[in-house]
């Protein structure tokens, strides 16, 4: 078994654990999904997939972790996961998706009450996008200019 196969197997195990955390069962006296634990497992799976160079699955795991944090009403960590997914999309050279995810992350930071992090995220994303897609960079800069009024 190669190193990448081991990493993928570990990622699949983390996914399985995350799904277990999301299940409810009367027999186990578990009436609510454990979103926090599931998000943690999805984060671990994302890292494993990234190390195995399976970037599409890595991005999907970060988005699932973001969804779990969102269900748990933890907007800051939801935004962090979306920012991580955006970085992976950038590494995949999917600039349109990266721009969209950075924008969602900035909105999440804004709603979580960390305006400075929202502004830094948009600024960092726009600068990075300048060399790849000027239209996406302009979109991000325009969004950054409106942050002040979105509160």
UniProtKB/TrEMBL annotation:
Entry protein name: Gamma-soluble NSF attachment protein
UniProtKB keywords: ER-Golgi transport, Membrane, Protein transport, Transport
GO cellular component: SNARE complex; vacuolar membrane
Transmembrane spans: none
Stated family: Belongs to the SNAP family.
GO terms for biological process, alphabetical: intracellular protein transport; vesicle-mediated transport
Subcellular location: Membrane
Membrane topology: Peripheral membrane protein
SUPFAM superfamilies cross-referenced by the UniProt entry: TPR-like (SSF48452)
Predominant place of localization: membrane
GO molecular function terms listed in the Swiss-Prot or TrEMBL record: soluble NSF attachment protein activity; syntaxin binding
């Amino acid at each position: 078994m190669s190193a990448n196969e081991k990493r993928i197997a570990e990622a699949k195990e983390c996914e399985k654990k995350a799904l277990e955390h999301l299940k409810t069962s009367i027999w186990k006296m578990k009436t609510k999904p454990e979103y926090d634990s599931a998000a943690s497992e999805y984060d671990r799976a994302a890292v494993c997939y990234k190390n195995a160079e399976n970037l599409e699955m890595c991005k999907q795991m970060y988005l699932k972790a973001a969804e779990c944090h969102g269900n748990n009403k933890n907007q800051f960590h939801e935004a962090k996961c979306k920012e991580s997914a955006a970085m992976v999309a950038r590494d995949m050279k999917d600039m349109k998706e990266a721009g969209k995810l950075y924008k969602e992350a900035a909105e999440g930071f804004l709603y979580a009450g960390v305006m400075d992090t929202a502004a830094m995220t948009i600024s960092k994303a726009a600068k990075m996008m300048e060399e790849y897609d000027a239209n996406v960079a302009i979109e991000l800069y325009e969004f950054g200019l409106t942050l002040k009024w979105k509160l």
